[in-house]
Design goal:
The longest helix is centred in the first third of the chain and has 38 residues, at about 220-255. α3 packs parallel to α20 (about 565-585), α9 (about 220-255) runs parallel beside α12 and α9 (about 220-255) packs across α13. This protein has 21 helices and 23 strands. The protein has four domains: about 10-175, no CATH class; about 185-210 and about 360-600, D-amino Acid Aminotransferase, Chain A, domain 1; about 220-350, no CATH class; about 625-748, no CATH class. By secondary structure, the protein is of the alpha+beta class. Strands 11, 12, 13, 14, 15 and 16 form a six-stranded antiparallel beta sheet that branches. The protein binds adenosine-5'-triphosphate. Adenosine-5'-triphosphate binds near residues 376, 539, 551 and 552. Its main location: cytoplasm. It holds the Pfam family TTL.
Length: about 750
């Protein structure tokens, strides 16, 4: 289970020693528990890390072993301790067995399917060696597995949700995947969902998630092109400012008769000159963008010509490429330095991502639902980006490609790029309950960071890519050959730079906030189920000021002990997950290891069910004859006395389609004002008939209190709104929902 490292520095050696010790300790613990087992005092079973000599072999299966197996099975069945695992998770298996659980083997096909699968998690990176070890027969466990083959499984750990049939799950069965998590565990899902953040939090997703577009959607493609062009403008301004600083520095060098500099200068003079209008155009576009953010463009008529025509944009981008990628010079660029600086300062206040943009306008193009760096490419020219996705044959089929702004100025360790793998655990979606792992690890690139090449070996830090590459000779020797660091090693590095405090004040809080915000935006879409939990692996990058940027969230993050770093941390995170989801169920004060509860929503009370499905109360819009309700009316006598009201106006029921519509009381009162309000009191949120509620109100909904996902509320007719109510009720039962209607203009 614990593999040796290719190169281990002092720290790693220490880690391995402690790991080795851990393994021996756990073997000793198992021997002890086996000894206890003989006395019949404690039930605990050997785990796969036990040396073969103490494993129970076939010859050991004498009548007394069989008797022992039977009694253990009997006890496990009585205590509902039967588990099943799909995928290479020896740590989970060992930890469950140590708790007295007995495994029911999953059918062979389910186990095999995992290997051929290529979904959006990165679990397939897991080493086959572990799987081989798993196959090593352990006769006593095999016997017990056979004995429990017809028992109900109480704990499933799989690396894919569809490995088990979730429809037939009993309430008390625990599973490690929620349904519909793709809304934030796929690149396209995260890209789309984070835009809804304003409904849940005042935070701006642009402050922690690099802007991202789904290229297959026409409007998104258009938005991307606009973004690309605007970024070319800001990048040009940055270039002018940085160039000036560079020249100033070179002048200092020149004073010291730096020959190297002179050589470079002469080379530079051979480069083409780009007209200074390129900079004035960029400044103009930026100015207009600033005005549009302040809605200064709102009164412009649609006929007002755009800043640049398509052809002018092409001309501008060509000049920009010559400067930023070809290192051409800009005519009299020195004259624009102060205006470029001033414009960038203004933009900084309103564009939270200006800091991660460099001068090159690089974007990273990712297939929507793949993992381990497959199909990812960095590009810097607009035409190349668009051509890449449109020419790729998979693009036509795969409508989920996303293009994301590349973080051009990451925080580097000894000039090497890295990203951070951070785990978190969700144990409930309603109320949302999130556990953050206190430990994480860094994954380095094998090559020194440079924007002169856009090769994956430099820019993608996935272990599945980097493990095949030989580390560059230029890379600093502090970075180990296995390309990983524990968070503690990074903290030590920060300390050496005088930045130690930033880990606790900037990096960790930033990662926690990003995780919570990503989950909040997905909450309404996830199928919540009690006795379900899910461990996720979020990837972050740090910018030059150590601010974390969320790159993606993986369901079923890899647990492969591929290096000494992952061997240590993946083992720990799996054991701690079981502490949270199993030990804490029976003892609220149980040790949760390195998991820290960081978010728990206030519990949402389920309204008392009083036999009524839905109550609509409120003040009808003026001219209530136009109020049409498609719900079947209740006869007055059917109403509870408190709800009977002379003003109730019963409408013709809508023709029934396939199933009976819910009972609804509609209570409306005439009102003299043109505004109107209605309060809806939902019944049990699980009541399926809620989804049939439909209102046809010729009104515009102005505001909704207590709501969550009301994206479409500005739409004119409330038919759209019933769809929203439908979604909302499923996940967030509220006692009251107040909707303010606006009286529309009278129809002719
Ligand atoms: N916007 C970005 N800016 C800079 N680097 C990025 C960006 N997005 C991704 N990367 C780099 O590319 C790598 C792969 O990206 P990403 O995690 O999105 O892909 P993946 O194939 O799902 O990887 P995994 O399965 O390991 O999570 C990241 O680990 C990171 O090093």
């Amino acid at each position: 289970m614990f593999q040796s490292c290719e190169t281990v520095g002092t720290n790693e050696t220490h880690d391995m020693v402690s790991l080795g010790k851990k393994a021996t300790d756990s073997a000793k613990a198992v021997i002890l528990s086996l000894e206890k087992l003989q006395d019949g005092r404690e039930y605990s079973l050997p785990c796969p890390c036990i040396p073969p000599e103490i494993r129970v072999g076939l010859s050991d299966l004498n009548p007394s072993s069989v008797k022992l197996a039977k009694s253990l099975v009997e006890k496990a069945v009585k205590m509902h301790k039967i588990f099943a695992i799909q995928g290479p998770y020896p740590v989970i298996r060992a930890a469950l067995r140590a708790r007295g659980w007995i495994e029911q083997r999953m059918p062979q096909q389910v186990q095999q399917r995992q290997n051929s699968d290529s979904r959006s998690n990165d679990a397939e990176e897991d080493n086959s060696e572990e799987t081989e070890k798993e196959k090593e027969p352990d006769r006593l466990h095999s016997l017990m597995s056979r004995l429990v083959r017809n028992e109900m499984v109480y704990f499933y750990w799989t690396n894919r949700r569809d490995a088990i049939c979730t429809n037939s799950l009993q309430k008390e069965q625990i599973v490690n995947h929620f349904a519909k998590a793709g809304s934030f565990t796929t690149k396209a899902g995260l890209c789309v969902n984070l835009r809804k953040l304003h409904w849940f939090d005042s935070a701006d997703p642009d402050s922690f998630f690099p802007r991202c577009y789904k290229l297959a959607a026409r409007d998104e493609k258009h938005a991307f092109i606009e973004d690309y062009r605007r970024t070319a403008c800001t990048s040009l301004l940055k270039y002018v400012v940085e160039k000036d600083q560079h020249i100033q520095w070179n002048e200092i060098c020149q004073n010291f008769q730096d020959v190297q500099w002179q050589k470079k200068q002469s080379k530079l003079h051979c480069k083409p000159l780009v007209p200074s209008e390129t900079v004035t155009t960029a400044l103009k576009v930026c100015q207009e963008y600033l005005e549009s953010l302040e809605h200064g463009d709102i009164d412009k008529s649609l006929e007002t010509p755009q800043t640049l025509t398509q052809e002018q944009w092409e001309g501008f981008l060509n000049s920009y490429y010559l400067v930023a990628h070809g290192r051409a010079q800009i005519e009299r660029s020195g004259n624009f330095v102060s205006s470029c600086k001033a414009m960038l300062q203004k933009l900084e206040k309103v564009c939270p991502q200006l800091g991660i943009d460099g001068t090159q306008n690089i974007w990273i193009i990712k297939p929507g639902a793949k993992s381990r760096g497959r199909g990812i490419k960095c590009e810097k020219r607009l035409d190349q980006i668009l051509r890449l996705v449109s020419m790729d044959s998979t693009f036509i089929k795969e409508s989920k490609w996303v293009v994301q702004k590349y973080i051009e100025k990451p925080f580097l360790v000894h000039d090497t790029k890295f990203d951070v793998r951070q785990w978190f655990l969700v144990t409930d979606w309603n109320p949302l309950t999130v556990w953050f792992y206190k430990k994480c690890y860094l994954r380095f690139s094998t090559q020194p960071y440079s924007l002169d090449t856009l090769d994956s070996s430099v820019h993608l830090c996935n272990n599945s890519i980097q493990k095949h590459l030989r580390p560059s000779h230029q890379r600093h020797r502090c970075i180990p050959a296995h390309n990983m660091w524990l968070d503690d090693q990074f903290k030590a590095f920060l300390a050496s730079q005088g930045k130690e405090a930033l880990w606790e004040t900037v990096v960790v809080p930033g990662m926690k906030t990003a995780v919570i915000q990503a989950l909040l935006t997905a909450q309404d879409l996830i199928e919540s189920r009690k006795n379900t939990f899910e461990l996720y692996g979020a990837d972050f990058m740090l910018d030059f000021s150590l601010h974390p940027w969320l790159i993606e969230i993986n369901a079923s993050p890899t647990m492969a002990p591929s290096t000494c770093v992952t061997a240590q941390l993946c083992t720990a995170v799996q054991e701690d997950t079981l502490r949270v989801v199993l030990d804490r169920r029976v003892d609220r004060s149980a040790n949760t290891g390195d998991f820290q509860l960081i978010y728990r929503q206030a519990a949402v009370g389920v309204p008392l069910y009083i036999g009524i499905n839905l109550v609509v109360e409120g003040i009808a819009v003026k001219h209530s004859r136009r109020f049409q309700c498609l719900l079947p009316p209740l006869k007055s006598s059917q109403l509870p006395s408190s709800k009977r009201c002379g003003a109730v106006k019963e409408k013709e029921p809508a023709p029934e389609k396939d199933k009976p519509l819910p009972k609804v009381i509609q209570k409306a009162q005439e009102n003299k004002t043109s505004n109107s309000e209605a309060t809806l009191s939902p019944a049990l949120p699980s009541e399926p008939s809620i989804s049939r509620v439909a209102f046809h109100l010729p009104v515009t909904v102005l505001s909704v209190d207590g709501g969550s996902n009301f994206e479409h509320l500005s739409k004119k007719h409330a038919e759209v709104q019933y769809h929203i109510l439908d979604m909302w009720w499923q996940y967030q039962p509220l006692e009251k929902l107040k909707i303010t209607f606006f009286q529309p203009e009278e129809e002719e």
